[in-house]
């Protein structure tokens, strides 16, 4: 199986980068060899990114008469409110990714919600669209009571500090503006945001929010998986206020680690991880939203809301990489993909 590196290296710290790493792991678990150079022999090409080399690689596969599995991670909706100028060019971005997706012999997208978007007529996809989660390694991301002390020690915080965390690229779509405002309204709680954005791409409002964030906001940047695992397992709440996702690998990791989760109530999560059953949610947007989050987050931290961590762990286990591998094998069979030799 060819999973070319190319420009995908640019996405190494993003959700797409994590998805590619997961794919490599599950493909190998199925007994297939993973090659990364298009100059080496391959039977099937996996393509994941919206970068220009994806079009060139798909043409190379056609020349070699090899099938292409195209992963639809991105949509016009989740491109908006991302980087400087993104909203202006979002319709052009959609036309571009639609062109890429149509180059696939089959299209794979992580959730029913994302399939509902890319199956719209404006994408023009006529091939079969499969749903396959990006998955989570629940043997690695798991509850660990000892992580609580390690997390606070690593951040230089007293042992009794209440810690609320989030993870993601720093952009409006990820809800960072609201997240900083919630932190401002809860000075007795430490808020930690893991992840960063290239300063050349960050929007002015996000840069201003980070620069003026209250002292109880910490921004450690991009950290290792080990550090992130301790954060998930050791925090008091995972507060994920994203406005649009096609799945959200970091959310799966938090659920797998048993973190109490508070989400913005958006379409992708409304039925999949329902409020009061698997996660806690706050609906809405606008000026009143941070206060609503503060109220519900305060109740969660005080123990006034139901403990849903077992249900969250079960939801993560449903998309464990082992199960995702089994489902990928089914897609291979459906598309006639076979290991040669």
Automatic annotation (TrEMBL):
CDD domains: GT4_PimA-like. Residues 148-277 form the Glycosyl transferase family domain. One of its GO terms (molecular function) is glycosyltransferase activity. One of its GO terms (biological process) is carbohydrate derivative biosynthetic process. Keywords: Glycosyltransferase, Transferase. Residues 41-139 form the Glycosyltransferase subfamily 4-like N-terminal domain. PANTHER family: SULFOQUINOVOSYL TRANSFERASE SQD2. This is D-inositol 3-phosphate glycosyltransferase. It comes from Brachybacterium muris UCD-AY4. The lineage of its organism: Bacteria, Bacillati, Actinomycetota, Actinomycetes, Micrococcales.
